[in-house]
Design goal:
Number of helices: 8
CATH superfamily of the largest domain: Response regulator
Radius of gyration: 20 Å
Oligomer: single chain
Order of helices and strands: EHEHEHEHEHEEEEHEHHEE
Helix content: 40-55%
Distance between the termini: 43 Å
Number of domains: 2
Number of strands: 12
Strand content: 15-25%
Length: 230
């Protein structure tokens, strides 16, 4: 649809210019970024109807960029572009984004796929209730940043508490490494100590467990990371 905003993230200058021109000829308003950190800045600072994201980017790769903003609640449709065509890459691309196109690609096909992404953006969004997670230890409302523990008391969460909880909940049963937590919760320019993350986990135990000294749901795996077990 004319006027829809597209973010094009591509570090190769010729391809970036060609795609930008053709998207604009289709009536889109196109912003560009050349690196992973620049893409994060754009996505956090403006609304886009769809994103075309190269995977191999300077600074931070496209998969990590999208996984990070997804964790922050950004649901814009994403089409990944990449020369990496291994099954594992395609699977990760479809898990993190909405579509995946291997290089080299046909321009007409790309424009058709972008059109479908933009149309998807205009579909009714899910009910706000989907942002609420309930388990035996209590209830977490990621939309309002509120947590209710076993004692029935509602507590206000900070943004980082909510992001860490969402990351652990979305990967329930899996060990989430400290490095992944640093990337997705604290960002790329802040490096808290392991003790800082441990303090967050202790706070979660106090909120959701009968006895914080006997963790039921939030576990530290020494030398590896952290795990949520519902």
């Amino acid at each position: 649809m004319a006027g829809d905003r597209i973010l094009l993230v591509e570090d190769e200058p010729t391809l970036r210019s060609t795609l930008k021109l053709n998207l604009e000829l289709e009536g889109y308003s196109v912003s560009t970024a050349q690196t992973g950190p620049e893409a994060l800045e754009r996505l956090r600072g403006a609304h886009f109807d769809a994103v075309i994201m190269d995977v191999m980017l300077p600074g931070v790769d496209g998969f990590n960029v999208v996984e990070t903003v997804r964790l922050e609640g950004n649901t814009m449709p994403v089409l990944f572009l990449t020369a990496r065509n291994a099954p594992a890459d395609r699977i990760r691309g479809l898990q993190a984004g909405d579509d995946y196109l291997s290089k080299p690609f046909d321009l007409t096909e790309l424009l058709l796929r972008v059109g479908k992404l933009v149309a998807k953006r205009t579909e009714p969004i899910a009910d706000a209730a989907t942002s609420v997670f309930t388990f035996a230890g209590g209830r977490i409302d990621f939309g309002s940043y509120e947590a209710t523990g076993k004692d029935g008391v509602m507590r206000q969460l900070t943004q980082r508490e909510a992001l860490l909880l969402r990351l652990l909940v979305e990967k329930a049963g899996e060990v989430v490494s400290r490095e992944e937590i640093l990337r997705k919760v604290w960002g790329y320019n802040v490096f808290p100590t392991t003790r800082t993350i441990d303090n967050f986990i202790v706070a979660f135990r106090k909120c959701f467990s009968d006895d914080p000294r006997q963790p039921q749901y939030f576990h530290s795996v020494r030398g590896v990371g952290y795990k949520f077990t519902p």
